[in-house]
Amino acid sequence: MSRLSRPTWTQEIALVISDIDGTLVTPDKVLTRRAIEAVRRLSDAGIGFTLISSRPPRGMAAQVAALDVRLPFAAFNGGALTTPAMVPIERYCLTPEVARGMLGLLDACGVDAWVFADDDWLLRDAQGPNVPRERRAVGFDPVVVDAFDGVLGRIGKLVGVCNDPELLAQVEADAVASWGQAAAIQRSQPYYLDVTHPMANKGDGASALAALIGIDLARTAVIGDMFNDVAMFARAGVSIAMGQAPPQVKAKADVVTLANTEDGFAHAVDLILRARDASEAGRS
């Protein structure tokens, strides 16, 4: 159930920014018919729609096309602003020093590393944890390499991959202690630790998208499900958390919708449109 069955925000929403994994798509990475129809309803109501995700730009292309997204979108948690035609607008990369240090930490802790650079997904073990899951999500195959030395200055996102949440949480804490001022370090899923440029976070990403599109953040609604979404919750006029989100994430949102197994994204859009209708009725 939503926390607010009758939304009470006062600003009329003009732009919706949605996360993808855990939010827009199901756990099996399916974009449902109801989700597609919900985006169409936003367009019919004159409300803009775009995406922000930890995925690389190339890994968002299918959703951009399926939803007919016509506005700039943000990949790498806001680190790669891109047009719907896949033309880069702005890109932020990790420094070689941070990338080298993080890779060393992951190796020391026995955590697999993925590197996204030059529009490629690089890894050292094609049989490592969650590779099939990521391949299904981003829609392209990884490139197997012996080492990452050749791309250290061009990394848009570095990911620690581990199916032991407690171990990954400890790695996250150690990474933040060492490089928290020089990088954005946060889990995008319980099993993924994202490391990006400090400007590549969803708070700055949502702000940049709103500025590019020309919409005040106070008239922007954001929808997400994980800890890396909280930064944009704090910036937007309205924040909506998915029903399956961790309690700490839901506590930071204005509204809690249904889970992504229950078309929670479409339900969130219903709340936004209902609030718009109520606002228009109040003015008439």
Characterise the protein shown here.
By secondary structure, the chain is of the alpha/beta class. It folds into two domains: 15-91 and 201-283, HAD superfamily/HAD-like (Rossmann fold, 3-Layer(aba) Sandwich); 96-196, Hypothetical Protein, Haloacid Dehalogenase-like Hydrolase, Chain: A, domain 2. It is 33% helix and 21% strand. It has nine helices and 14 strands. The strands form three sheets. It has a six-stranded mixed beta sheet, with helices on one face. The chain has a five-stranded parallel beta sheet with strand order 2-1-12-13-14. Helix 1 (33-44) packs parallel to helix 9 (264-283) and helix 3 packs antiparallel against helix 5 (165-179).
Main features:
284 residues, alpha/beta, Rossmann fold, Hypothetical Protein, Haloacid Dehalogenase-like Hydrolase, Chain: A, domain 2, 2 domains, six-stranded mixed sheet, 21% strand
Under CATH, the topology of the largest domain is which?
A: Rossmann fold
Taken from the alpha-carbon principal axes, the silhouette is globular
Total domain modules: 2
Main β sheet profile: 6 strands, mixed
CATH superfamily of the largest domain: HAD superfamily/HAD-like
Topology, please?
Blueprint: E1 15-18, H1 33-44, E2 48-51, H2 61-66, E3 73-75, E4 80-82, E5 88-91, H3 96-109, E6 112-117, E7 120-123, H4 131-138, E8 143-144, E9 155-161, H5 165-179, E10 184-189, E11 192-196, H6 202-213, E12 220-224, H7 230-233, E13 238-241, H8 247-250, E14 255-256, H9 264-283
Parallel strand pairs: 1-2, 1-12, 7-8, 12-13, 13-14
Antiparallel strand pairs: 3-4, 4-5, 6-7, 6-9, 9-11, 10-11
